[in-house]
Amino acid sequence: MMMKKITLVDDEMHVLRIMRLSLEKQGYEVSTYSNGEEALAALKQGEHPDVLVTDIQMPRMTGEELCKNIRLEFPDRSFRIFVLTSRTEIEHRDWSASFDNLEFLEKPVSMRQLLIRLDSYFQSQKIPS
Amino acid sequence: MLIRHEKPGYIMVLASLLVMLLTAYLLFDYQRSDREQQAREQGLALARLISSMPWQQVVGQSGSKGLLDALSEGQNNPDFSYAQVIDKSGRVVKEVAARGIIVPDQPISIEPSSWIGQRLVDRKGQPGSADKGNGATDSEATSFIESHAPLFQDDQLKGFIKIGYRQPELQLSYAQLPFLATLTLPIFLLTPLFYYFLRQELKPLRKIGQSIDDISNGFLQQPLELQPNAELGQFMERFNQFIETTQAHIRKLDTEQNDLYMSSKLLSYKNSKVESILQTLPEAVLVIDKSGVVSYANQKVDSLLGKNSEEIMDKKPAEWCQSPELLKVMSGNYNKGSISTVSGSSLSGTASNSTKKYEVLTYPLFSPKDDSQLLGRLVVIRDVTEQFYERQRQGEFIAQIAHELKTPLNVLAMYSETLIDEELTSAEMRIEAANVIHDEVERLSTLIQNLLTISQYELGGLLIERQRVRMQEFLQDVFDTMAKSDRARTLNFEIDLPHEMGVAQIDKALMRIAINNLLSNAIKYNRPGGQVKLEARETDHALEISVSDDGYGISEQDQQHIFDKFFRSEDNHIREQTGHGLGLSLTRHIVLIHQGELTVSSEPGQGSLFKITLDKRPDNLVG
């Protein structure tokens, strides 16, 4: 079985580090970036994640901008994006409503919660194929 | 005036003269007609008397004195002129005449019906006659009253007797002058007396006239005092009543006028008060009447709408309003009030106002007397730009705070989970986790403290509690605490204090927050390996605490705003870092309530220097 690729985007170095550790331990292939700009650049250079986990409030390019850019530049890619937010999902509705591949996770996010979500996502992906 | 006043006098003199003349005339006329009557009666009586005598006796003997002579001599009537006997054929048989009189010879008809009669005959007098002495003869034409009667001799008509009297005329003789004088003198003397009494009688009338003049000139202050006398009494009384009524009316009118004046004063005062209130209002106030034109606008429309209040007066909004949005609000349903927010660009049409926000309130205006009668609408336009952006900033602030709070919480959540999961955790990992958790807790606590302090000063409740603080120890402690953080360890973090520092009267907790904020900014907005320095200097008058760095620096434009609450620079280096725009604002506030000064000097790319200067006055600082 191919290792699932997960791309993490967060400006908080400690968060990136602990998530990477946890996910790698679960057998995911993880790459990390500290803002949207870096992540977008990596995608353009051919990175093909199965899931992208991003923070919202980041310098240079926010999570919101990153999502919009991904849809704009890679309309044919349909990977799941988990958005970590310090606000409520409702507050992001105005821009997120048109996205069907977004899932919001409100901070503080427990690692266990994220792993369960990822699991159920990948399980749901398996069934049709 | 004198002429007018004395006119009655002149009239009276004239009238008395007329009366005198008339009296004299009537008197003489009576005298004349009396004499004429006498002449007529006497003549006829004499003619009859003689007619009864026989012819012979009347004619008498020629050469001797006859009856006629006797008649003439015995005559005492001065008007007697002549007596003549004529025969049937008219020939004069005998005649006697007064001196200077030529007897007229008017024939007498021999018809028996006219034998006895009286008639008036004219005869030219004989002027220039030498022996005339009688004044009566000086008239050129004389009329005579002639009486005639037949004379008989044995019942045979023999002739006629004619007796003539001069017709008396009006005449004034010297002899009559004293009589006349006696008659007229009393009249003449009575006139002034009468005039005097009349004037006395008329005096009240003149007084009345004067009073009326005074009243019309508005001088009369007290009721007219009149002593009414006899005839004028009632009139006076009525006149006094009239004056009293008039004065009462005048007083009433005066009072009413006064009241009116006062109330108009009051009204204009109230009016100007209302006007000044309307002008002082920070809002633009418009009144649009029922016909849809502006009937009032205060001066604020100038700054808010960019239109002079006179410019829009009496015009429909469509004629001057360039904002379709505002126009729609103003021309909406008159019966309902509304509140809407209109953005500035469309209000006055100028691009410079594009960021302005206005709140437009409309109210229906009803008549104060009848609240079902709609007079128009009141439009109040308020500049809510400040509030709008303030609200926006607060919204952003809350989002920012949520992020700032939740980010360390997130880290805490993840690391604490790691510690629980023993499989996952190596010994190094545990140590790392403990350190991270410590740092994040520190970060959270600083943030919460900042928030609490700022909300305290927002509410006006931030009080300074000065205490004696050894500055050297205090600054060293602040520095050491900050130096422990992860970020500080990547930098060249230094402290430079004088060997000896005094004791200062400061609020330790607040000053720690202020200096902490300056230090954490210097650390945050810096490159790895950059330099941050906390310094202190003490002079005779002041204590200076400065925080310098060689980081990104602050542009000149940003320097104007960095102390504003919620200000966040657009600079990318600054944007990269999380921040809430509170730190510097709070720091400045803390320095200010210490009666100190916070200054900044910076150049982009070169770094920044923030300096707190505290006045070293006895109540502030103790050396």
Characterization of the model:
The complex is a heterodimer of chains A (129) and B (623). With 129 residues, chain A is an alpha/beta fold. Chain A has a single domain, classed as Rossmann fold (3-Layer(aba) Sandwich). In chain A, 41% of the residues lie in helices and 20% in strands. Chain A has helices at residues 13-25, 36-44, 63-73, 93-96, 111-126, and strands spanning 5-9, 29-33, 51-55, 80-85, 102-106. Chain A has a 5-stranded parallel β-sheet with strand order 2-1-3-4-5. In chain A, α1 (13-25) links the parallel β1 and β2. In chain A, α2 runs parallel beside α3. The model of chain A has no long low-confidence stretch (mean pLDDT 89). Chain B is of the alpha+beta class and 623 residues long. Among the domains of chain B are: 2-125 and 140-171, Beta-Lactamase, CATH 3.30.450.20; 281-380, PAS domain (Beta-Lactamase, 2-Layer Sandwich), CATH 3.30.450; 463-622, Heat Shock Protein 90, CATH 3.30.565.10. Chain B is built from 18 helices and 18 strands. In chain B, the strands form 4 sheets. A 5-stranded antiparallel β-sheet of chain B has the order 2-1-5-4-3. Chain B is rod-shaped. Chain B starts with a helix and ends with a strand. At the A-B interface, α1 of A face α11 and α12 of B.
